[in-house]
Write a structure and sequence with these properties.
By secondary structure, this protein is α+β, with helices and mostly antiparallel strands. It is 38% helix and 34% strand. The chain has helices at residues 14-32, 76-91, and strands at residues 3-9, 35-38, 44-48, 51-57, 61-68. Strands 1-5-4-3-2 form a five-stranded antiparallel β-sheet, covered by helices on one side. Strand 4 (51-57) and strand 5 (61-68) form a beta hairpin. The N and C termini lie far apart (30 Å).
């Protein structure tokens, strides 16, 4: 299965970064019917048929990792581009 691994530096406080990721998660649920859940380790897990992953908030970076199923494999480039665009929009 193809993997997505994107890291983006940020200079927000942990609380502000968490708020931004909450906003992004809301959009993910609305646009892509993705289920999201905050984990005890502070990462946001997301899942729907064909994709699962997490968003981790570090002190100075956001780390998005995901695994794509066979049906979404051909869309890996487009999915990565959309993730990068959203991260740039919120963390640049």
């Amino acid at each position: 299965m193809p993997n997505i691994d994107i890291r983006r530096p940020h200079s927000l406080s942990g609380t502000d970064a968490h708020t931004v990721i909450d906003h992004v998660a809301t959009r993910m649920r609305e646009k892509f019917q993705v289920e999201t859940q905050w984990k005890s380790d502070g990462t946001l897990g997301f899942e729907r048929p064909g994709i699962s992953g997490k968003i981790a908030i570090g002190a100075d970076e956001i780390h998005v990792s995901a695994q794509l199923g066979m049906l979404l494999s051909p869309l890996k480039g487009m999915i990565e581009q959309e993730i990068r665009r959203k991260l740039d929009e919120h963390f640049s």
